[in-house]
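Subject: M18 family aminopeptidase structure
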Amino acid sequence: MADRQNLESRVPEGLLRYIERGISPYHVVEAAAEELERDGYQELGLWDSWSLDKGGKYYVKAHGSSMFAFRINPGFGRLQSFRIAAAHTDWPCMRIKTAPDMSQDTYAKVNVETYGGPILNTWLDRPLSVAGRVTLKGNGCFSPETRLMDFGRPVFTIPNLAIHMNREVNKGVELNKQKDMLPMAGQAASDVLNKGGFFLNALAGELDAAPEDILFYELSVYNCDKPDILGMNGEFLSAPRLDNLTSVSACVDGLLAGTERGSGVDMAVFFDHEEIGSKTKQGAGSSLLALVMEKICRSFGYSGEDCINCLLKSFLLSVDVAHGKHPNQPDKSDVTNPVFLNGGVALKAESNQKYATDGEAVGVVRSICDKNHIPLQLFANRSDVGSGSTLGSIASSFAVMNTADIGIPLLAMHSAREVMGVKDQEALSDLMRCFWQEQ
């Protein structure tokens, strides 16, 4: 109990809740929706006609794993702008394949495929479970039923090979995604395993449904480890899925805490598929953001040109994590632009536009932080070390507006467990709150 109290006293409750509940992109969206509804946000259908009110608060889900939440300020009028913060709901992991049943002697295994770019060896010897969305037979061919599901307990593990059988393991071993990353799911007699269908039957049992009614599933393997406070003085948080639940949590906190600024539209956007390039119907590399913005403007009778001008005047914060300087590999960071855990929010810039930040956008973010005493660090990649991109450059190429890339620093990004500074989440939430407050 004392450890749990220590955790809750140092880490924002919202982040802990998202780590616990955000076990698939679909569950992240559901957790955010429940929080928004408690604050009076009303759900809209993506393809419905919208009749919106000034002063209204709304959210819309897109294909189950993306979401748009927005507040229309009372003075919203023609040619006013949107202030948008965008994060992503996915993370690198394994996904269950169709017809996944495999066996080796008495061991049941499931066939998986790698999603995104996980650090594979960090997934070994962990307690793993499964969650996501299942499609079931419905009342008609074009109206299947969808349900979220979570096994809610450890059901898998991917065992390492003992050092006695792999004497070179500490010199580095390449893991084969098809051979070495197959989760062990159980043990049964060979006649049971050879019949097949053991995973589908187990899934049907969790859903209280008939196996033949399951048409498809989109299921993620997730790490069941609980968050832990680390450090001699409790400086760090170690947890799964910090990339990018830290950003989702901060965006929701900021949107709910931000007071109405009188004009414009305040919006938090959560895209899926950032880890695989964003080029999907619910990803940042689609026209989805621009379409939602246009629907909002059209609901107030604004013309097509008004909608375009409103979009062009808007501002986007791409909120994703940054690489903190590593204590054992300091030479991987830029020599003059490293960022540190507990040093505050990282503002990321890159001349090749992996990060979308430009001069005017930097000026806005720095002004907000200076005025509100929010700790801010400037991040740049080392010139000879490649780094990942974010959704900012992608989204702003479809919905053209000034954009800045920000986020909190992490160690071990894309590991099954990542590490952050406990102070940084509060700084990010404060920045998001002020982003929707300042004039």
